[in-house]
Amino acid sequence: MAARSLEIGAAGIRAARTIEILRTERGLSQRELAARVTALGRPMSNTMLSRIERAQRRCDIDDLLTLAQALRVPARALLQDSATC
């Protein structure tokens, strides 16, 4: 049986939008944020980050925690409605 991709739920879509909003508010390109994440020990290309932001790739908990650290926000901020960040 072929592997089935998991659908990205509401929390994943919310996190994706919030990551993009926070990244742009900080004046970071996808390449710059991906480099920060990689420097923190979680290898990430700008393509991977782009797919996360477009909700085409799941953001696992390790990605989420490292992205929050790279954006200098608490991890829970990535899970909240972007209007409250």
TrEMBL record:
Alphabetical list of Gene3D superfamilies matching this protein: lambda repressor-like DNA-binding domains (1.10.260.40)
Record-linked CDD domains: HTH_XRE
PROSITE patterns: HTH_CROC1
Name by which UniProt lists this protein: Helix-turn-helix transcriptional regulator
InterPro entries for this protein: Cro/C1-type_HTH, Lambda_DNA-bd_dom_sf
Domain of life where this protein originates: Bacteria
Domain HTH cro/C1-type: 19-78
Native source organism of the sequence: Streptomyces violaceorubidus
